[in-house]
## 1
Amino acid sequence: MMRAPGQDRKGNGKNMERLDKILALHSVGSRREVGALVRRGSVTVNGLPVKKPDVKIDPERDAVCVNGTMLSLHSRVVLMMNKPAGVLSASRDTRAETVVDLLPAQWQRRGLFPAGRLDKDTEGLLILTDDGGLAHRMLAPKSHVSKLYEAELDKPATAQDAAAFAAGLQAGELTCLPAELLLPEAGGATVRVRVCEGKFHQVKRMFHAVGKEVLRLRRLSVGGLWLDPALAPGEARLLTPEEIALIFDSAFRLQI
């Protein structure tokens, strides 16, 4: 049985907000534009057409569709994206495509931003959210949240390079904290490196400091959260609370 818009199962009416306000906050349009969508019959709540734009809904529990597309109206959104190369890690840019531009309509909302950027030509795991507190906790130095990258180099790294990374090194004017360089058992120029910082071009500059150049860079994990292999480049999905907790798994902190 379908629930009417905003109908609470216990009848207590908690967490209720105006539909037009919620849709405006999620970039569907201005309140006037939302009103026009409602009058055209383009908005449904829990499968029922909405008659008035000021109807109260529960954004955490009511299913809202606009022009047949289900919207995600969670109070906070945390997404995992497989970032492709050539796209900016930014909310918006007038000259280039951003990671937010790649998101489908149901996750387009004001205040969404990448929590920890990747360089334009770097690929892999990127977290996008509108939860400033979560992002601050992720990026705070005291959290020691590690990031694991896979790097294709112009020549193989050595045990001496690994020792230099572990000791912390000077990359030009950049002072880098100790990092873990993982060399492949079979040899070759593809390595993994785990860092607990996110300074500008840091991984590339660290390899340059030991005489290597990065040809391709891909982030595999943040803390204990690994990139979902089912995500194609440019695709994204919501994270579960359990997956969010993995970001802060102490087993993946670097000892510095």
Note: The CA atoms of residues 223 and 247 lie 4 Å apart.
## 2
Amino acid sequence: MKKLTTLIILIVLSVSGAHAQRLQARFVTSAYAWERQDTIGKSSEHLYGYETMQLSLSGEQLSLHTYLQGFNDFAGPLSNNPTFRLYNLYFKWANIGNMVDVSLGRQAVFAGVGNGTIDGGLASFKFLDSRYKLTGYYGALPAERYEARLIDNTDKNFMAGGQLSASPLDFAQFSVSYMQKNIKPETYLGIRRDSLFNPYTVEITPTATAEEYVSGDVSLEYKDWASGYLRYDYDLLLDKNSRFQFFTRVKPFQASSLTALQPLSLTGEYLQREPRLLFNSIFSVFAFNTMKEYEIGAEYALGTEWQLFAKYGAVSYNDGDSHQMTLGVNSNHVSFSVTRDDGNGGELSAASLSLGYPFFENKLTPTLMLSYAHYKLSEFSTSLDDALSLSVGAVYRPIRLLSVDAQAQWIQNKIYNNDMRFFVRVSYLLSQQLGIF
């Protein structure tokens, strides 16, 4: 905490040197009430409350960002036992010498195969009119449950890596990335029993685990009729392929001269992946099979407001597979779809409808969602079960900076005869130009 406090002081002093600052803060208060069946004939009521804050203070080059959340179950068995999570708190110095960005603190990392949260630093270097970008990062893993503190054994719990991105052509982008993560939980004391059931204290030393991956990906987008994405990940510690993914979207017909709209889009996707396991963990010694997924689809635009779509996909794992077909229609205010699943994972026939229409100059939008499913969870089941759900709500935005969302949910299935849930959220955005420094 001393290190974190020192970091915050340095950040504030740095930001205060800016000539003008833009303060943006979003406050979100939400509550979720429901009843859970703990065992047969016994239930518990819950009232989840969340308070979320996103704040940024930005100058011409310097900025401070934070995202935190508080939670409490006001009615459940663990009522009045609140938790606090600090998801990020970092200082950023952008466009140093028109080529370097540096950020320091707790922050999220998205750099190819490397993604997660670190308490550390990240730097990006841009070259040749930003066509080439090199990103590097290193930091300790955050404390358990994102507590507002720094862990002690940072040399054994860290994530490091980098990514090189290149856009040599206007329609193509390439990148290669590398990530290493080490995890060594702290030693703790536990109570065990001997052969006579007498308790005794023992020191538990968890096993150190790790991840190390290298990845490459390619993105292509040629004019307005074809795009594609290709990605490959390799597990260096387990010495095997980890992931192969391909996606493409093609518009085979030329745009209409009247609407400049290409009505038909064809999509295809293939994904092959291994379970992502930590090296030296107990799970890494078991044999796992490769999962393969593919999906093909078509989308057809009826003017500028309506769109028809159809998708067919399959998933295979070991000797089992399952198939899914979906047909539907979307518009600005209505969405309807029907789905059919079958295979080793069971059987499902479902339909869903979603409605939402704004009134009073988009200030009030009532919503309705209805879904029905006829299913069985295994191919060996002899009977089919039904599930029905209904949600009724409204979104109220009297001004651009304030919104209130409320929803009542009703569920009926073989487990819950009549299950009611209520959700409400209030969001407020504050944006102000400051000149106090």
Note: Residues 131 and 169 are 9 Å apart (CA to CA).
## 3
Amino acid sequence: MKVHFGSQNIKVNVRHCVLTIGNFDGVHLGHKKIFELVRFHAAAEQTDSVALTFYPHPSVVLKKSSENIDINTLEEKIALIEREKINHLVIEPFTKEFSQLKPDVFFNDILNKRFYPKIFIIGHDFSFGKNREGNIETLKTLCHPDQKVIVVPKFEYNGFGVSSSEIRSRLKEGDVETAHKLLGHTFFVSGKVVPGSQRGKKLKCATANLSFGERLLPQDGVYIMFTEYRKKLYPSVGSLGHNETYGEGLPKTLEVHLLDFHQNLYKKPLIVHFLKRIRDMKKFQSEEELKRAITHDIEQVRKYFEK
């Protein structure tokens, strides 16, 4: 997959492609269905499959949200879309000026001037242009006679619609198991191992302290995880939150302990996959009490993977 930062910077001819447009936040099951159709129709038309997305998230730029709501970082989203075997991913910078484009201007000056798609494949809730004034009917009206619009119905799982907002809600509740089913893959966080408090060694349970930046995270707690290192998966237990056992006002950390693993991970890139939340973060009265809790957590992890 070729990645282009800004549609004005595309150096190859992608005109007459099959195009889909969206934020694709989380690259969930609904998005995967859209990408499947894009691939199918591109192959049938013997043309390129193209996905147009935006960065940063429009809600952040327009200050409709006070927090970073992206389920994945940009790098993670690129990797997930690459799995879908799309030929070209175009990442359009989303600015306040860009948000003021009227639907017809966005269509003519960007979509048709730079892509002139044979087929648009869009989700059921597609909207575009200033204040989301453009909708599916607007798109159909603006299209030329030789262009086609295919609308993908809302994807449902167990009777309810799959959406990025539903996945965010599940993650904030710590329900990573349901989020996993809606995403079609595990929720994961990627980052590098950074210096920590070194308390893990004292507790005889070495942990890797993972950097995570400004991003959406699940509810604080202790989780069963897979840690991905050099394309191998290691059963792990991880804690996300403020370790109040050692004082108030400490920063939030994401620490993982890889079971039966003895390599030095400092400064190494890791991906941690959240599999199941097993308890809340808790303030312990002593290090001995904390050690007993960690031992119990590790036992739960071993039993989980034995199944």
Note: The first strand starts at residue 2 and ends at 5.
